[in-house]
Amino acid sequence: MRVSSVVIAAALLAGSASAQTLTMGNNVSEPNSSDYGVGTTRTAVDLTNPANASGNLTHVTFGWSSLSCSAAAKLKVFRRVGDTFTMVAERGPFDTSVNGVDIDLSSSPIPVLEGDLLGVARVADCGNPVVYAPSGIVLHASFLEVAGDATGFDYSDSPVHNGQLAGYGTGTATEVVAGVVHSVASNPGRQGSYYRTLLQMLSYPYGSPVTGRFVFHRKLVPGSPSDPSLAFTATAATVQSWSDILTTMGATGQPGSLDVVLPWGAAMPMIGAQVYNDTGADGTTGFREEAVPTTNQGVSVSTNIFFAGATGFLFGPADATRYRCNIAVRSLDKGVQFTLQAMHADGTAAGSSLQYRYGPNIWDQKSWQDFTGAVLEDGDYVRISVNDGTAIFDGSIVDIVTNDPADVLARVAFAVE
Description:
Number of strands: 33
CATH class of the largest domain: Mainly Beta
Oligomer: single chain
Strand content: over 45%
Structural class: mainly beta
């Protein structure tokens, strides 16, 4: 275990997602262990590397412990919505060989969405899936295994294991979540406030028009293909504006976050949002924010994205009498498990640390005290340590008299690998 700078940590995160095609699962060359044998028939699902884009899965390989098993192995693809896993496709059963199982799907590719998961099922009493489990290194919640030839199940901690499941798929990517506007609103707030979100988009001054989508994730509603969306066409050197983007999408009533979905390989436009308290004839108060880049295409990854082993910090208000504070979290495709520790300005702990877990693509916001378990004091801050998965964290500091909000993103300070 070692501590690295945030620059190195961010580079590692970018490198893990830099493939030029659709990828999912783990390319394990030397497996050294096997699955956990929870039943004669059983299904293992990788959690560490969901599909990095939407597209078509055309080739899959996975390891097997026995050289020659007849009709023993199945390939499965699962879609996770919150803590519910649903099989969306399967192939097989397949015979195994010295090379495990090698499946060419080019004649009948499997359509997948970004975030879908690769699974391997043992459906005959011969051999079993294999994994790579390096000695002395914790690989976090790497894969889970359930009994039976599973078509659906709910997440629980008991079947989750360490180790990289030896299954790897590639294909043709079509679109990707290129960025996240981490906090948006069109709903009533406290003390008679009403918050809206103005969105602006400027495309780079070259290239052909690009058609994409905004996708809204409502508070505590797990991301799914049925989430509200709005198509757009980004035209070179042109600014587009939406004065209340969520009203345009028909998604008012609860705050949340907004994904920017683009065709694979398309350049990310400049996107800025203004979340404001609309007081009618008395004007507005609010804050500006930019989309956090989440691209899986090998360019820079924001240090505002927390990943497994990362620790960072979030400011509270300097004056806890004049301002209130909320904390928001937006999990990404892997979901997230993290610890929050409220800290006083002098560096001493404010109460005990609290642990949280969210499934993929969920946005939540709570008051400082509800999220940290500590009473807010002048100059307090939060230490955030992510145990598994990826997420964005931000704080909203609001003037209790004017309801004028300010926003600050948490930033990764260091990482333990």
